[in-house]
Specification:
The chain is α/β, with parallel strands linked by helices and 341 residues long. The chain has 15 helices and eight strands. The protein binds adenine (ADE) and zinc ion. Zinc ion binds next to strand 1. GO terms for molecular function: adenine deaminase activity; metal ion binding.
Amino acid sequence: MNTHEFLKAIPKVSLHVHLMGSIQARTVVELAAKHGVKLPDFNEPEDLYQYPDIYKFLHMYDNSALAIQGRDDFARIAYETLSEAAAHNVRYREMSFNPTTHMAAGASYQTCVDGLIDGINAARNDHGIECRLIAAVNRMESPELAVAMVETLLENPREEVIGIGMDYAEAEFPPERFWKAYRMAEQAGLRLTAHQSEDAPPRNIETCLDLLGCERVDHGYHVVESEAIMRRVRDEGVVFTCTPVSTAWVYFGEDLSNHPIRMMKEFGIKLMIDCDDPPMFQTDPTKDYIVCAEHMGFSTEDFRNCMLNGIDGSFLDEPTKRTMRRQFATEFDALASQLSK
Ligand code: ADE
Ligand code: ZN
């Protein structure tokens, strides 16, 4: 078995993937035609997924949202991305979605969440993959809208929706604006995560841990600018969900070996690897692992650690985590023994 086959076959937990970033370009085009939504000009559907910066990328996100309207549309996009993930042996995913984006595009929260649950159930039936949902705050919107989003979640409880997150562009929208939404979610028993220090100083990581009460950090690359915070998160065992391919443009152009993920790993920070917005960045759950192996010196043992860190950082209950750790480690070791030297 070669390295690519090995990295595809190993069992995976996925904690950092966005629903809207997971839609195949072809599906966006079909759904836009179905609902009469005008998309930017393209020759091939994949042309829609090219952008020079995060703002243009997010603009495409919002464009796609206009094409996702009915419960069946939400079911379809969830089913398609989970089926693809299952082909890479992703067994459990905590997938984020942005309720306010879909509501602004004209779908009700109930249509959105129940459609996603339909897709999750169908993917479990057909491929055995499990998925839970994280409702993400769009940090470019107001703190009041984030509070309203949490109220909507609480008025429409679904057992699949287990927590809240925070995404969109960080540089001008610091985390402290959202303390109230996070406090409400925590009091209601929702689990907490947030994108921080993807595109802003490392102090946002401390705000996210200390003020918002986050249990893990999504991205977090600017941590390498503060040795004190690096030491703190390492010593506290905070799990970081890192996505090399989707953040390539920020850090290295063509030279992936400069990505801070490498230094974070070498320093001993607990991290796991995921694929963020797979079709929108021409990646998939295996390709992000391959990049780590080929450009950042990840060894077989590093991948084993990442796998176990993903389980630790998940919002599963402890007994489920224990069983999963044992099963995954056994499978991983059997595959590693077949890896050609
Ligand atoms: N999707 C929404 N916000 C994102 C972000 N900040 N990075 C990557 N994908 C995103
Ligand atoms: Zn992300």
